[in-house]
Design brief:
Elements: H1 4-19, E1 22-25, E2 28-31, H2 32-47, H3 51-54, H4 56-65, H5 79-90, H6 93-106, H7 109-134, E3 137-138, E4 144-145, H8 148-158, H9 162-179, H10 183-197, H11 202-217, H12 220-249, H13 254-265, H14 274-290, H15 298-301, H16 309-316, H17 318-337, H18 349-357, H19 363-394, H20 398-412, H21 421-433, H22 435-444, H23 446-459
Antiparallel strand pairs: 1-2, 3-4
Helix pairs in contact: 1-21, 2-7, 2-22, 4-16, 5-12, 5-17, 5-19, 6-14, 6-17, 6-18, 7-13, 7-14, 7-16, 7-17, 8-9, 8-22, 9-19, 9-21, 10-19, 11-19, 11-20, 12-17, 12-19, 19-20
Length: 462
Amino acid sequence: MFSLDGAFAPVADLFNSVVFFSVRLGEVDVPLVVLWLGGGSIALTLALRFLNIRGFLHAWRILIKGAPVDHNTKGEISHFEALSAALSGTIGLGNIASVPIAIVLGGPGAIFWMLLAGFFAMSTKFAECTLAVKYRKVGADGQVSGGPMYYIEEAFSRLRLPALGKVLGVLFALMAVGASVSIFQINQAYAQFERVTAIEAPLLFGIVLSVLIAIIVLGGIRSIARVTSRLVPAMCVLYLGTGFFILAINADQIPAVFRQIFEGAFGLDAAAGGAVGAMINGLKRATYSSEAGTGSSAIAHSAVRTNNPLTEGYVALVEPFIDTIVVCLTTGLIILVTGTWQSDVPMGIGMTSLAFESVFPWFSYILCASVILFAFSTAVSWAYYGSKAVGFLSGGNARVDVVYKLALCGVLSLGATVQLTHIVDFIDAMLFGMAIPNLIAVFILLPELRRDLAAYEKTIGK
C-alpha cells in the first residue's frame, strides 16, 4: 500500500545525513549545524558588543512609539505588525510540544541552555533582519520582497563572486519553500482537537483550516499582518496568563526547580547524558522555537515601513526574548513544577496538556484552542515566507505566486490524514539547512553592519 511518508523516506534520509551531520561528544551525537547556529549567535553578540542588552530598551521604545515615517517611507506594515507576523511563525507548537521533549531527552538542565541560546539569538535576529530590510526590493506598486536570498546575493557580489551568490540565494529559497509546508502544525493541532472532542474528521479539519489560511495569505502581507497583530497578543495572553497562574500557586516549588535546572545544565546530576546532553537538546529546541539564524522571520520583518533598516533590527531582537525566554521558560517551569516530565505520557504536547490539566481539569479545551491558533498562525506566516521565496525564484511572477499558495493549502489540507515521520524530518532539514548560506552572508556583511550601527547609535546618543 502506497505511503506518502514512506515515499519521502529516501529523500529525507539524504538531506538529514547532510544537514544534520554529527560528531560524537561523550555519549551524545552533536549536529554540526547546531554548533554553527550557537557559535554564530555568540560571535554576533560579541561583534555587536552585547547589543541584545544595550539595545533592549531602545527596541521597546521603537516598538511602542514607532520609528519616524513620512510619505516617502518604503514598506507595507508597521513595526508592531512586522513583529507580530514574525512571532506568529515562531510562537507555535515548538513552544508547547518541543520544550517537554528537550526536558525528557536532556533533563531539566536543557532549559538553561535553551534560555542561553535565546539570549544570544537576539543578536542574530538583529543582524539578519536589519540586512533583510536594507537589501529588500520594493516594486512599483509598493509591494516589498525581502529576505536572506537578497542579501546573500549582495554579500557574494562584494566578494566578486556573483554567480556563487546567485546559486546560494536560489538554494536558500528552495529550502525556504520546502520548510514552508507546515503540515506538522496541522497534524498536531488535529491530534489535540481529536483528543479533546473525540471527533474523528481529519480531512474536514484540514480542509477548513487550509481554506482559512488561503483566504488570508492570498491577501498578502497586509492581510497577514492585520490578522497576526490581533491573534498573537491574544494567544500570548491566553497561554501565558494561565501558565503564570499555575506557577503562582506552585511558587514554593520554583526555587527547587531552578536548582534542578542549574545542576542539570552543568552535569551535576546524571540525567540524560549530563551537561552535553542538556546543552545539545536545549540548543536544538531553542532553534526550533526562535528560528534565529535560519533567516525565516527576516522575510516578514523586511516588509516593515521604515526609513532606517536598523530600527527593525532593534525590534527583531525582541522576538527571541518573547518566544524563547518568556514562552518556552513558562512551559518548561510548568512541566517541572507539576512533575509531568517524569510521567508515562508520551513526549510532546500531551505532556504539556497533562501539566496544565493537573491544576485545571478543563485546561485541555484552552490548550486545544491555543494549539489550533498557534498552528494556524504559523502556517499563515510560513506560507508568506514560501511565497516570497517562490517570488525570488520566479522573478516575481504573480501567477506562480497564486499557484504556489493554492497548492500549499491543498497539501496542508491533508496534514491531519497522513503519517509524518519522514516528511517532518525533511522539513526540519530544510529549516536548519537555511542557516548555512544565511549566516555565511551575515558574517560577510558584518563589518558593514557594524559601521551602520555605530552611525545610528550616534544619532540616538548611545
